[in-house]
Structure formats: structure tokens, C-alpha cells
């Protein structure tokens, strides 16, 4: 039997990073980590410095305590419902086998990076004042009004995105249950409930706190969804308040104070949460053994699955149907659209390339360090930037930094967008690439070392061909993530410098709903195409050289 | 002469203190047996440089190699599995052992493969080779690299009797012809009887000559 080899387990017994093998790679990883740390440090310094130097004009400074409380209630509700939806979806998907299951699982994986404005647009298309629901209900004299705006609309959008994310991670855990356990359970004839309690629950329980904390943080710092669906100061997050302080009240002092509170709250959540679970691995191994439930339970699962998937897919379908046709044709006639589309495209590609580079650099260095070493931990930390410093705060930091070094927002904007989005998508890219990098190191390092391959040869012959698929997927994730970004652009966008989400938000604001819907449709189509095409391109490139 | 001299090691959080003493003559194969977990693979890792010993020395023809990094040691290893990169062709796997610029279809590679009875398989992806063919591709690469110390960690396990028989013959012949020093770890008495001129047994963390 093969034992998992740990080629580094004993090479270095000190806490220091091991530089004896591939020192270039290790140093490159630490260099990347250092650069990210310095950048974040500079942004935080700019924030605190600005906090002291700008007095708030006190125009509409929100009651921060109230804001935090309301956001926490919203995030807590969203998290609870997301987890429930996630468990039900994962449980049903684990048991059922049907045509198109792989596609659905893939859809769930990409939900977290789906542009949230697309989901918002879809929900409005269905539940808004002139949405489908009201069209159907009108003959009966009933109306849902504009109920999608406000608390429950925000929660619904959050549950759509995060429920899918939770389902994907939990499904991974269920599929990683060792087949021996399933065989044992089956031969004991466990009932549905017993099976869930004895086999499933222990497998998913350990990841619930980690997933829950992540979702809570995402909802607590939610920006685009709350901005569009919030409908007033009653439903705000700190992120939205920061945006409004900067762009509506021109009150940098208030914005900085809000940002500092935001940072403290994030830190208070993320520090304990990061010890709860290892980062979710979206590429789990799959056990071949399939143990379906009985007829009745399967029927219930099918109904649940169809219902939840309908809730998930209907808004996306609505976006496509309402956004295409004449709306899209009129959009295509506008020069501002093509300009924004071009900007979105190149910024998305550039930030995805940067993110991929950072993740590979960090991941390679990390896979060269022994388990549980401080060096390994340090190399994993920059990845959490996104959760610790949410988009608008990051954007505000860049905004102030540019001001301090005397660069105008317009000049700084393109570079800021590329870097900020690369940092923000880093956790997803890293989570995708790190496990295959580790697996590769564990499996092949002895052979590579004993053959004395150079670092370049190792990349060319071993890593490049074997990482093609995950690299392509990671690139697509980063691209789609930055394609949908509204947080970073929100402080830098102008009528001259615009991306698709910014253009869409401004169309919403100007009640040009048709334009907004058409842009949402375009973003959705580009996102789907990216997920289909980019991994193929990478696979082609990596195999073409073989 | 390859001398493993008072080589001491203890796994991190491990219970056993290992101490190894072995001597292998040029062109000979030393058999190494012992119960599972006795430390056979650990000893090979120490010789190959994947683990740093707490003390002791490995001396090849009067020169200590203990200070060398694994990639610089005059050592080849053949594991039970994972000796090849599955995504590369047989030829590319062999070529990688020469230099990263060597071509998979060079005459040198073709000849090494042919010597192992694998002519015509150069372009086949390693994943699609049988277990015995994989081991012979790895052996072809070892032959080209021509490092004097050959470490074999249960290389015949999982092969059918005929293939294992053929592999034994090839290995015995190469080691003698090239004047290598080989250590063969095996659970199979027949392997040891057929190949090994000396026989060491590991027990309770010590090596004994049998
Ligand atoms: N990195 C490690 N840390 C701690 N203990 C280890 C480590 N690697 C191996 N061991 C332990 O050292 C002992 C010897 O392992 P080794 O792999 O050398 O045995 P072996 O004789 O090759 O056994 P087998 O016949 O099963 O291959 C085992 O008890 C093993 O669990
Ligand atoms: Mg062993």
C-alpha cells in the first residue's frame, strides 16, 4: 500500500522557511506576501492618517451603532437561511443522480463570483413593480408592490448567492465521506434520519462554522445588492454608508470613520473564524459509491431540488429574457456601452492574470513548506485580504493613498481597479490552485529531486501540463469576479471611466431599466462564456505543448 | 564499497530510534527485509537525502555523500509506484532523466527503451503502460543516468510472476555490469534469494546482517 509521502516533513526542524530546495520559489512567495502586506499596510495607514486629518462635516453621519446592529440582523438572517438552503440542496444533490447534475454542481460552484448586480436585476425583473409576478397577479387584483426593495429583497439576493456556495462546499464534504462508512451504514440498514444524523451530520458539522462565518462576513459587507435593493437608510451596510459619505456628502472624514469601524468588525469576525475550518476546497475527491434514498424520500428530495433550483435559475432566466431583444439592440447602439465593455474586459483579464500569478507564487512557496510551520501560515495570510478589507474600504484606501501621493483618481483608476480586483479574487483563485499544487508536491517531489530537474523544467514538464484545468478555472473565477465588481469602481467611476457594473448602476439610478437589464444580460452571458471557454483555452495551451 | 555507518534517525514525534549499519560491495545487491513499519523506506530516504540523519555517515568509495542535497547524490531510486509522470510519454519520462533539453525521440532514449524490451513504446503515454512496462521505463532512465547507488523499494510488488522474474534478471545483470551498489527492499523471500548477495534484516530499529 502506498503511504502519502511527506517529502518535507523532516527537512527543516526550525521554524524558519526551508530554503534548501527551490529557494527561488520560496523567496518569490515571501516577496509576494511581503508586497501585499506592505500595500495593505499603506492603505490602512492612509485610512488612519486621514481619520485624524479630515474632520467630519457631520452632514448626514449615520448612527454607526444602529448601522452595525441592522447589518448584523440582516447578515445573521441571510446566513441562517443560506445554511438551511445549502444543507437541503447538498443533501438532495448527494443522493440524486440525473442528467445535467454536473452542470448544476458547476453552476453552484460559480455562484459566489456571479456578478451580484445580475442577481439583483433578475430579482427585480421577477418581483419588481412591473415584474413577472405582478404581471401574473394583476388580473386577480393582487400586487406584490415593490416588496423586493428592502430587508427581504436583500436577504433573498444573499441567500441565492450564498446558499449556492454553501451547498457546493457541503456537497464536497458529503462526497468525501469514505466509502467504507457508506457500506457500513447501508449494511446496517440505517433509516434516512439515522443516516443523516450518524453519517452526514458529522461530515458537514465541522465546516458549518467556517462557512457560516464567511457568509456572515460577505452579507455584512455586502455592497452592490444593498445599494440597489436597500431603498433607504433603514437598510444599509457600512460599505454603502462609506460610498454615500464619499460620493453624495463629500464627507471623507465620515467615510474614514465608517471604514475603520468596518475593519474592526471584520477583524473581530475573521480572526476567530479563520481558526474554525481550513479553507474550503472546491475540488474534492469523489467517492464512486452511490447510495440513493428510498422512493418516498427521493421524491421529496426531487421536489425540494426543483423548487430551490427554480428559485435560483428563474432570476437568471429573467435577466436573459428581458435583457435580450430590443433592449440589447438599443444598448449596442450606445458608444458608452462599448467603452465600458472594453474597460471591463481588459481590467478583468489583467486582474485575473495578476491574481493567478500571485496565487501560483504563494501556492508554490507554500507547498514547499512543511505542514503547520509558521512559514506556511504567513504565506496563506494575504489570501484573506478580501474578507478582512472589503471592496469599498479597499477602494477608499486606494482613493486616499492616491490623494496623498498626488495622483488624481482618474489617473489612478485603471491601476487601482486591476490591483484591487486581483487582491479581492485571490481567495477564490488560491482556494482553487492550492490543493492541486500541494497534491503535486506531495506526489512528485521525491522523483523531481532525485532526477535533479531545474525549477524551469519542473514547471514546463510537470506543473504547467498538470495544472492547466485548475489554472483555467481559477482564471475564469477571477475574471468573472472582477467583471462584476461594483465596490472598487464605486469610488473611481465617472462618466468617462466606466465599467459594465458602473454603467448598469447608473442606468438603474436614472430609471433606464431597459438599459440596466440589457447590461445585466450581457454580463451574465460573458460570465457563462468565460466559465466555458477560458478553462478550455488553458487546457488547449497546456496540451498543445506536450 | 558503500558504507552506511552508524546512521541514526528518529522521526519527529516517532517512538523508534533507528540505527543503521550496512556494507555493500561494488556490483552487488544487498537485500533488506523486515516487518512493515520497521524503517526500510526510512533508511532509503536517508541514503537518498530526503531525510537528514541525526548522526552517522554514508560513504561511497571513501567519500562521504551525507552533505549532498538529494538532487546531487549519486543515487537512483525505484519506488513501488509513482516512478513516472503519468501525463508524459514513456520517451519524455526517460529524456527528463538526462536533461530537460533532451528530446524524447533521441536515439539515446530509443536505445535505452529498446534495451528494456520496450522498443516502439516511446510515444505511449505513461498512464497507458502496464505496471511492468512502467517499471522498465523507469529502469531505462536509471540506466541512462548511471548513478552508482541504486535503491529499490519493493519494485516488484504488484507485478505478475513472469514480469517480476524478467525484471529481476535485468536488474541483476545491470548492477553487475555497471558495477553499481544496490539495496533491494522486499517482502518476498524469492526476490532476496534470487538477487541479493548479502541480506540485512531490520528489527527494533537496528540492522542485522543475516
Ligand atoms: N514523517 C514521519 N513522521 C513520523 N513517523 C514516520 C514518518 N514517516 C514514517 N514514519 C514511521 O516510521 C516507521 C517506519 O516507516 P517506514 O516507511 O520506513 O517503514 P517500512 O519498513 O518501509 O514499512 P513498509 O514495509 O510498510 O513499507 C513507521 O512506523 C512509520 O509510521
Ligand atoms: Mg516502505
What is the secondary structure topology, with strand pairs?
The complex is a heterodimer of chains A (546) and B (210).
Chain A: H1 23-53, H2 64-95, H3 101-111, H4 116-127, H5 132-137, H6 151-175, H7 179-188, H8 192-205, H9 208-220, H10 224-229, H11 238-247, H12 252-274, H13 295-323, H14 326-332, H15 335-367, H16 374-380, H17 385-388, H18 391-404, H19 409-451, H20 455-483, H21 489-492, H22 500-509, H23 513-544
Chain B: E1 2-10, E2 17-24, E3 28-33, H1 40-48, E4 55-60, E5 63-64, E6 75-78, H2 90-98, H3 107-115, H4 131-145, E7 149-153, H5 161-178, E8 181-185, H6 189-195, E9 198-203, E10 206-209
Parallel strand pairs in B: 3-8, 3-9, 6-7, 7-8
Antiparallel strand pairs in B: 1-2, 1-4, 4-5, 9-10
Helix pairs in contact in B: 2-4, 3-4, 4-5
Essential attributes:
heterodimer, A: about 550 residues, mainly alpha, MetI-like fold, about 0% strand, disordered N terminus, B: about 210 residues, alpha/beta, Rossmann fold, six-stranded mixed beta sheet, four-stranded antiparallel beta sheet, about 30% helix, about 25% strand, globular, binds adenosine-5'-triphosphate, binds magnesium ion
At a glance:
Chain A is mainly α and 546 residues long. Chain A is built from 23 helices and no strands.
Described by the principal axes of the CA atoms, the overall outline of chain A is globular
Order of helices and strands of chain A: HHHHHHHHHHHHHHHHHHHHHHH
CATH fourth-tier homologous superfamily of the largest domain in chain B? P-loop containing nucleotide triphosphate hydrolases
The domain tally of chain B reads 2
- State the total count of DSSP E strands of chain A: 0
Estimated radius of gyration of chain A = 24 Å
Commentary on this structure:
The complex is a heterodimer of chains A (546) and B (210). Chain A is mostly helical. Chain A has helices spanning 23-53, 64-95, 101-111, 116-127, 132-137, 151-175, 179-188, 192-205, 208-220, 224-229, 238-247, 252-274, 295-323, 326-332, 335-367, 374-380, 385-388, 391-404, 409-451, 455-483, 489-492, 500-509, 513-544. The model of chain A is unreliable at 1-13 and 278-285 (pLDDT under 50). Chain B is an alpha/beta fold. Chain B folds into 2 domains: 1-74 and 148-210, P-loop containing nucleotide triphosphate hydrolases (Rossmann fold), CATH 3.40.50; 85-146. In chain B, strands 6-7-8-3-9-10 form a 6-stranded mixed beta sheet, with helices on both faces. A 4-stranded antiparallel beta sheet of chain B has the order 2-1-4-5, with helices on one face. The mean pLDDT of chain B is 90. At the A-B interface, helix 19 and helix 20 of A face strand 6 and helix 2 of B. Magnesium ion (MG) binds next to helix 1 of chain B.
Amino acid at each position: 500500500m502506498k503511504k502519502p509521502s511527506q517529502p518535507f516533513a523532516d527537512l527543516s526542524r526550525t521554524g524558519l522557511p526551508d530554503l534548501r530546495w527551490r529557494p527561488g520559489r520560496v523567496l518569490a512567495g515571501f516577496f509576494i506576501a511581503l508586497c501585499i502586506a506592505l500595500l495593505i499596510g499603506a492603505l490602512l495607514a492612509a485610512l488612519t492618517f486621514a481619520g485624524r486629518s479630515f474632520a467630519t462635516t457631520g452632514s448626514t453621519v449615520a448612527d454607526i451603532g444602529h448601522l452595525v446592529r441592522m447589518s448584523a440582523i440582516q447578515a445573521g438572517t441571510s446566513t441562517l437561511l443560506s445554511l438551511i438552503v445549502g444543507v437541503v440542496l447538498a443533501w438532495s444533490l448527494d443522493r440524486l443522480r440525473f442528467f445535467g447534475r454536473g452542470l448544476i454542481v458547476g453552476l453552484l460552484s460559480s455562484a459566489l463570483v456571479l456578478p451580484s448586480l445580475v442577481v439583483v436585476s433578475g430579482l427585480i425583473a421577477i418581483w419588481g413593480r412591473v415584474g413577472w409576478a405582478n404581471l401574473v397577479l394583476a388580473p386577480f387584483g393582487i400586487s406584490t408592490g415593490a416588496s423586493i426593495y428592502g430587508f427581504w429583497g436583500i436577504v433573498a439576493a444573499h441567500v441565492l448567492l450564498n446558499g449556492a456556495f454553501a451547498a457546493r462546499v457541503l456537497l464536497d464534504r458529503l462526497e468525501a465521506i469514505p466509502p467504507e462508512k457508506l457500506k457500513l451504514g447501508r449494511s446496517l440498514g440505517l433509516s434516512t434520519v439515522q443516516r443523516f444524523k450518524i453519517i452526514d451530520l458529522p461530515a458537514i458539522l465541522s465546516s458549518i462554522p467556517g462557512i457560516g462565518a464567511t457568509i456572515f462576513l460577505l452579507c455584512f459587507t455586502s455592497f452592490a445588492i444593498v445599494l440597489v435593493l436597500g431603498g433607504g437608510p433603514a437598510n444599509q451596510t457600512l460599505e454603502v454608508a462609506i460610498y454615500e459619505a464619499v460620493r453624495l456628502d463629500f464627507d471623507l472624514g465620515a467615510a474614514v470613520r465608517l471604514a475603520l469601524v468596518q475593519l474592526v468588525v471584520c477583524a473581530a469576525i475573521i480572526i476567530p473564524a479563520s481558526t474554525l475550518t481550513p479553507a474550503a476546497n472546491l475540488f474534492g475527491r469523489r467517492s464512486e459509491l452511490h447510495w440513493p434514498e428510498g422512493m418516498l424520500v427521493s421524491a421529496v428530495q426531487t421536489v425540494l431540488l426543483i423548487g430551490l433550483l427554480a428559485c435560483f435559475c428563474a432570476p437568471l432566466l429573467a435577466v436573459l429574457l428581458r435583457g435580450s431583444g430590443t433592449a440589447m439592440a438599443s444598448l449596442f447602439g450606445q458608444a458608452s456601452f462599448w467603452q465600458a465593455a472594453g474597460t471591463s474586459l481588459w481590467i478583468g483579464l489583467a486582474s485575473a492574470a495578476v491574481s493567478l500569478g500571485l496565487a501560483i507564487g504563494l501556492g508554490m512557496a507554500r507547498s514547499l513548506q512543511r505542514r503547520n510551520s509558521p512559514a506556511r501560515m504567513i504565506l496563506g495570510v494575504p489570501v484573506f485580504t478580501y474578507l478582512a478589507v472589503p471592496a469599498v474600504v479597499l477602494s477608499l484606501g486606494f482613493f486616499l493613498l492616491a490623494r496623498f501621493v498626488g495622483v488624481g483618481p482618474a489617473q489612478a483608476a485603471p491601476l487601482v481597479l486591476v490591483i484591487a480586483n486581483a487582491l479581492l479574487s485571490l481567495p477564490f483563485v488560491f482556494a482553487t490552485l492550492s490543493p492541486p499544487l500541494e497534491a503535486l508536491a506531495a506526489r512528485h517531489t521525491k522523483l523531481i529531486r532525485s532526477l535533479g530537474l531545474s525549477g524551469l523544467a519542473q514547471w514546463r514538464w510537470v506543473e504547467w501540463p498538470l495544472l492547466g484545468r485548475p489554472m483555467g478555472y481559477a482564471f475564469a473565477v477571477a475574471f468573472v469576479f472582477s467583471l462584476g465588481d461594483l465596490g472598487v469602481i464605486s469610488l473611481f467611476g465617472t462618466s468617462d471611466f466606466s465599467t459594465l457594473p458602473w454603467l448598469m448602476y447608473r442606468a438603474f439610478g436614472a430609471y433606464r431599466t431597459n438599459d440596466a437589464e440589457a447590461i445585466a444580460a450581457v454580463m451574465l452571458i460573458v460570465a457563462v462564456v468565460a466559465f466555458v471557454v477560458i478553462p478550455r483555452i488553458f487546457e488547449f495551451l497546456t496540451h498543445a505543448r506536450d | 564499497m558503500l558504507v552506511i555507518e552508524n546512521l541514526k534517525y528518529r522521526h519527529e514525534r516517532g517512538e523508534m530510534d533507528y540505527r543503521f549499519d550496512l556494507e555493500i560491495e561494488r556490483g552487488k545487491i544487498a537485500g533488506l527485509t523486515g516487518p512493515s513499519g520497521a524503517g526500510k523506506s526510512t533508511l532509503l530516504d536517508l541514503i537518498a537525502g530526503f531525510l537528514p540523519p541525526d548522526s552517522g555517515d554514508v560513504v561511497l568509495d571513501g567519500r562521504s555523500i551525507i552533505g549532498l542535497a538529494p538532487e546531487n547524490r549519486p543515487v537512483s531510486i525505484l519506488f513501488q509506484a509513482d516512478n513516472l509522470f503519468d501525463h508524459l510519454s514513456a520517451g519524455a519520462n526517460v529524456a527528463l532523466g538526462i536533461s530537460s533539453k533532451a528530446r524524447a525521440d533521441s536515439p539515446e532514449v530509443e536505445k535505452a527503451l529498446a534495451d528494456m524490451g520496450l522498443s516502439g513504446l516511446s510515444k505511449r503515454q505513461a498512464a497507458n503502460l502496464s505496471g511492468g512496462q512502467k517499471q522498465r521505463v523507469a529502469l531505462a532512465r536509471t540506466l541512462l543516468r548511471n548513478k552508482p547507488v541504486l535503491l529499490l523499494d519493493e519494485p516488484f510488488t504488484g507485478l505478475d510472476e513472469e514480469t517480476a522474474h524478467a525484471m529481476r534478471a535485468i536488474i541483476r545483470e545491470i548492477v553487475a555490469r555497471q558495477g553499481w551498489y544496490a539495496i533491494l527492499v522486499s517482502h518476498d523471500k524469492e526476490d532476496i534469494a534470487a538477487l541479493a548477495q548479502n541480506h540485512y534484516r531490520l528489527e527494533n530499529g537496528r540492522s542485522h546482517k543475516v
